[in-house]
C-alpha cells in the first residue's frame, strides 16, 4: 500500500463523526483606521512617512541602487530588473505598491501583480510600501475578504522590517531581510 | 534520564534558571497585554478550536482536497508515512538535483524527523537560517523551545560561539553586533543555495496553498533565491478555507510572543516560472494520536509555544529536561503517544494548574490530557513501578484535600514567596511552583466534577 493510501485508510478507519465548521462573523474595528494602522506599524518597528518625507530621505541618503515598481515613485529607479534575484543582493531601496493593509496589525498584502520578482521585498536593504488610504481595512478577516479567491502564485502579508529577538530576547531589526520598512499612505 | 533528573541538572545553575524563568514570564506577560486589546479574543479561540476540530474530523477528505488543488497549481505533493520516508523523499530530490548544500528555515517537523543528521550523513551541508536555530546548530544542540529555539542561552554563550565560528570580536556581546554578523554569514549561504527547505504553518485545502510565518524573513530569503523549494508539513497543519487564516493569523503571533502578527506571512500557491515546489505530507504517528479519542485534539496545536512560556515547570526546568522534540505541556501530551516508555515521566512534569489550557489559542484541554496520560501510564506500569508516577498519582490525585492545600499554597506563592525560597537549592521543581493566572475552573473543581464519571 502506498503511504498515501495507508494514511487515508487509517483516518477513514476511525469513522469520525463530522464536527461543524463555523462561519466567521464580522468584528468591530478601530474607528480611525489610519491612526490604528500607524500605531500597529510602530509596534512592528515600521514607520509611516509622507511622500515628501520619503523624497527628502532619498535625496539626503543617496541610496546607490533603487528599484521602484510604484508609479508614484517611478523616477527614482536607477537600475534594471535582473534575470536572477541574487543580482539584487546589493539593492539598497525597493519601493513597491501594496494592495491593502489591515489596521489591527499593520500587515500589507502584496502578490505577484505587485512583485516584479518574489525576492524583492526580502532581499532589499530598505523597503518602502505605498498604500492608498481607502485600502486600509480593519482586521485580517476583512483583509481575507479582499483577497477573496484570487489566484496569485505567491502572496505575502508584510507587517514590518526583518527582525529577531533570538539573542536574549533583545529586539534587533534587520536579521536577514529588509532593515527598515516605511509605509507611504497616499 | 527522566524529567526530574534533567530538571535537577538545569537548576544547578541557579542564576541562569531564574533568568530563564523570568524571561519566559515576560513573554507570557507580553501575550496578555496584546490579547487584552482584542475584545473578541475568546471568540477567536473558540472559532480556531472549532475549525481545527472540524478539519480533524474530516482529515482524509481535506488531505485529498489539498493534494488535488496543490497539484493543479503545479506543486509536487508527496506522502510520507514516517520520518524515514520523509527524509528519503528529500534525499531523493537532492540527489536528482545533485545538490550538496541546502538552507532550511525553522521547521519543528524536520527536527522531529531528524533530517539534519540524515542529510549530513549523505554529505550535504545543512544551514539552519533562523538566527536562533543557527546558534544552536553551531553548538550542536537541539532547540529548547519551539518558537525561541535558543532561549536557554545567554548572549555571552552566543558571543563565544560566534567568535569561534564567525570570527566576531572576542567578548563582544552586543546583540545588534552579533545579529549583523549572522546576517552577513547567512546572506552568503542564501545566495549560494539551490534548494531551500521550510516548514508549514498552515495549509489550505480549498486553494492548495500553504503559509509560512517568520519574523526574520529567512524562509523567504531561502526559497526565493533557490530553484527548488521543499516544504514539509505534518498532516494536522490543514485548514479548510483561505478565510480561516484570518482567525489563525490573528491568534498565532499574539499567543507566541505578544506581537500582533509575524512580519512575514507568505502564501505559496505555485512555483515561480522555471522553479520547483514540493510539499511533503507527513504522518509519523499522527493518525495514531487521532485514533486516541482522549488525546485527539492535541493535534489542533498550531505550535505557538504559549503553553511553554506560561508553564511553571517548563520555565523552571528548561526545554532540554523534556528530552523530546516538542517540550513543555503540549510536548508532554504528544510525546508519550510516540514512545510511552521513553516519555513516561513527562505527563508528571506539570502542576496541573491549567494555565497552559488557559492560554492555548486553539483551546486544547492540555492539563486534562496530562492527567489522562498519568492515568494511562500508571495503569501501564502497574504494580511493577512504584516510582515517581505512583507516588505522584497517589499523593496528589487520590487526595483531593492535599491538592486543595497545595493548590492554595501555590496560589499564594506567585506574588508573595521571595525568590530565595523558590530558588532554594533544596527545592526540586515540583515544590517551587507558582501559579500564573488561574483558570476559571481550577483543577480541583474539574476533578470534583469528573471524579465520579
Ligand atoms: S498546545 Fe496550544 S498553547 Fe501549546 S503550542 Fe500548541 S497551540 Fe500553542
Automatic annotation (TrEMBL), chain A:
<feature type="domain" description="LUD">
    <location>
        <begin position="87"/>
        <end position="186"/>
    </location>
</feature>
<dbReference type="InterPro" id="IPR003741">
    <property type="entry name" value="LUD_dom"/>
</dbReference>
<dbReference type="InterPro" id="IPR024185">
    <property type="entry name" value="FTHF_cligase-like_sf"/>
</dbReference>
<dbReference type="InterPro" id="IPR037171">
    <property type="entry name" value="NagB/RpiA_transferase-like"/>
</dbReference>
<dbReference type="Pfam" id="PF02589">
    <property type="entry name" value="LUD_dom"/>
</dbReference>
<protein>
    <submittedName>
        <fullName>L-lactate dehydrogenase complex protein LldG</fullName>
    </submittedName>
</protein>
TrEMBL record, chain B:
<dbReference type="InterPro" id="IPR009051">
    <property type="entry name" value="Helical_ferredxn"/>
</dbReference>
<dbReference type="GO" id="GO:0006089">
    <property type="term" value="P:lactate metabolic process"/>
</dbReference>
<keyword id="KW-0813">Transport</keyword>
<keyword id="KW-0479">Metal-binding</keyword>
<dbReference type="InterPro" id="IPR037171">
    <property type="entry name" value="NagB/RpiA_transferase-like"/>
</dbReference>
<dbReference type="InterPro" id="IPR003741">
    <property type="entry name" value="LUD_dom"/>
</dbReference>
<keyword id="KW-0677">Repeat</keyword>
<feature type="domain" description="4Fe-4S ferredoxin-type">
    <location>
        <begin position="292"/>
        <end position="312"/>
    </location>
</feature>
<dbReference type="InterPro" id="IPR004452">
    <property type="entry name" value="LutB/LldF"/>
</dbReference>
<dbReference type="InterPro" id="IPR024569">
    <property type="entry name" value="LutB_C"/>
</dbReference>
<keyword id="KW-0249">Electron transport</keyword>
<dbReference type="Pfam" id="PF11870">
    <property type="entry name" value="LutB_C"/>
</dbReference>
<dbReference type="InterPro" id="IPR024185">
    <property type="entry name" value="FTHF_cligase-like_sf"/>
</dbReference>
<protein>
    <submittedName>
        <fullName>L-lactate dehydrogenase complex protein LldF</fullName>
    </submittedName>
</protein>
<dbReference type="GO" id="GO:0046872">
    <property type="term" value="F:metal ion binding"/>
</dbReference>
<dbReference type="Pfam" id="PF13183">
    <property type="entry name" value="Fer4_8"/>
</dbReference>
<keyword id="KW-0411">Iron-sulfur</keyword>
<dbReference type="GO" id="GO:0051539">
    <property type="term" value="F:4 iron, 4 sulfur cluster binding"/>
</dbReference>
<dbReference type="InterPro" id="IPR017900">
    <property type="entry name" value="4Fe4S_Fe_S_CS"/>
</dbReference>
<dbReference type="Pfam" id="PF02589">
    <property type="entry name" value="LUD_dom"/>
</dbReference>
<keyword id="KW-0004">4Fe-4S</keyword>
<keyword id="KW-0408">Iron</keyword>
Amino acid at each position: 500500500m502506498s503511504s498515501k493510501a495507508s494514511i487515508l485508510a487509517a483516518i477513514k478507519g476511525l469513522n469520525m463523526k463530522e464536527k461543524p465548521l463555523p462561519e466567521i462573523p464580522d468584528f468591530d474595528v478601530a474607528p480611525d483606521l489610519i491612526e490604528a494602522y500607524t500605531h500597529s506599524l510602530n509596534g512592528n518597528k515600521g514607520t509611516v512617512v509622507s511622500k515628501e518625507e520619503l523624497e527628502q530621505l532619498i535625496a539626503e541618503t543617496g541610496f546607490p541602487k533603487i528599484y521602484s515598481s510604484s508609479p508614484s515613485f517611478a523616477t527614482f529607479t536607477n537600475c534594471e530588473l535582473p534575470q536572477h534575484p541574487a543580482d539584487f543582493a546589493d539593492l539598497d531601496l525597493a519601493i513597491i505598491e501594496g494592495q491593502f493593509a489591515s489596521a489591527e496589525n499593520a500587515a500589507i498584502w502584496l502578490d505577484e501583480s505587485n512583485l516584479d520578482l518574489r525576492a524583492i521585498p526580502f532581499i532589499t536593504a530598505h523597503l518602502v510600501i505605498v498604500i492608498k488610504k481607502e485600502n486600509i481595512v480593519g482586521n485580517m478577516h476583512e483583509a481575507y475578504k479582499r483577497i477573496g479567491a484570487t489566484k496569485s502564485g505567491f502572496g505575502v502579508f508584510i507587517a514590518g522590517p526583518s527582525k529577531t529577538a533570538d539573542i536574549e530576547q533583545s529586539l534587533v531589526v534587520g536579521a536577514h531581510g529588509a532593515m527598515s520598512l516605511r509605509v507611504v499612505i497616499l | 534520564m527522566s524529567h526530574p533528573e534533567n530538571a535537577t541538572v538545569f537548576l544547578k545553575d541557579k542564576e541562569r534558571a531564574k533568568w530563564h524563568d523570568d524571561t519566559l514570564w515576560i513573554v507570557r506577560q507580553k501575550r496578555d497585554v496584546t490579547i487584552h486589546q482584542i475584545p473578541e479574543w475568546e471568540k477567536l479561540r473558540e472559532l480556531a478550536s472549532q475549525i481545527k476540530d472540524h478539519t480533524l474530523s474530516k482529515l482524509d477528505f481535506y488531505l485529498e482536497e489539498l493534494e488535488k488543488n496543490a497539484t493543479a497549481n503545479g506543486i509536487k505533493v508527496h506522502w510520507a508515512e514516517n520520518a524515514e520516508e520523509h527524509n528519503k523523499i528529500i534525499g531523493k530530490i537532492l540527489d536528482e538535483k545533485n545538490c550538496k548544500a541546502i538552507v532550511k528555515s525553522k521547521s519543528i517537523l524536520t527536527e522531529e524527523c531528524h533530517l539534519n543528521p540524515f542529510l549530513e550523513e549523505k554529505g550535504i551541508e545543512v544551514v539552519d537560517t533562523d538566527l536562533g536555530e543557527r546558534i544552536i546548530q553551531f553548538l550542536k544542540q537541539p532547540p529548547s523551545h519551539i518558537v525561541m529555539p535558543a532561549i536557554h542561552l545567554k548572549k555571552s554563550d552566543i558571543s563565544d560561539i560566534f567568535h569561534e565560528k564567525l570570527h566576531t570580536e572576542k567578548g563582544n556581546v552586543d546583540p545588534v553586533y552579533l545579529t549583523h554578523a549572522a546576517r552577513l554569514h547567512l546572506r552568503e549561504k542564501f545566495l549560494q543555495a539551490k534548494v531551500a527547505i521550510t516548514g508549514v504553518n498552515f495549509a489550505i485545502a480549498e486553494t492548495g496553498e500553504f503559509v509560512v510565518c517568520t519574523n526574520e524573513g529567512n524562509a523567504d530569503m531561502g526559497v526565493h533565491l533557490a530553484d527548488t523549494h521543499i516544504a514539509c508539513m505534518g498532516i494536522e497543519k490543514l485548514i479548510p478555507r483561505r478565510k480561516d487564516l484570518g482567525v489563525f493569523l490573528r491568534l498565532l503571533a499574539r499567543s507566541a510572543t505578544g506581537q500582533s502578527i509575524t512580519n512575514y506571512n507568505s502564501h505559496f500557491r505555485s512555483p515561480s516560472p522555471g522553479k520547483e515546489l514540493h510539499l511533503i505530507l507527513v504522518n509519523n504517528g499522527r493518525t495514531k494520536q487521532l485514533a486516541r479519542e482522549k488525546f485527539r485534539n492535541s493535534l489542533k496545536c498550531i505550535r505557538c509555544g504559549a503553553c511553554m512560556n506560561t508553564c511553571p515547570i517548563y520555565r523552571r526546568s528548561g526545554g532540554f529536561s523534556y528530552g523530546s522534540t516538542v517540550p513543555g505541556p503540549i510536548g508532554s501530551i504528544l510525546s508519550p503517544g510516540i514512545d510511552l516508555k521513553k516519555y513516561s515521566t513527562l505527563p508528571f512534569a506539570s502542576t496541573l494548574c491549567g494555565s497552559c489550557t488557559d492560554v492555548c489559542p486553539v483551546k486544547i484541554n492540555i492539563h486534562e490530557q496530562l492527567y489522562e496520560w498519568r492515568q494511562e501510564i500508571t495503569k501501564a506500569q502497574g504494580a511493577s513501578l512504584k516510582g515517581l508516577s505512583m507516588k505522584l498519582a497517589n499523593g496528589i490525585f487520590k487526595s483531593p484535600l492535599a491538592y486543595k492545600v497545595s493548590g492554595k499554597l501555590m496560589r499564594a506563592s506567585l506574588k508573595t514567596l521571595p525568590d530565595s525560597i523558590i530558588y532554594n537549592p533544596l527545592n526540586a521543581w515540583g515544590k517551587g511552583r507558582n501559579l500564573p493566572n488561574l483558570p476559571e475552573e481550577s483543577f480541583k473543581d474539574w476533578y470534583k466534577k469528573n471524579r465520579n464519571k
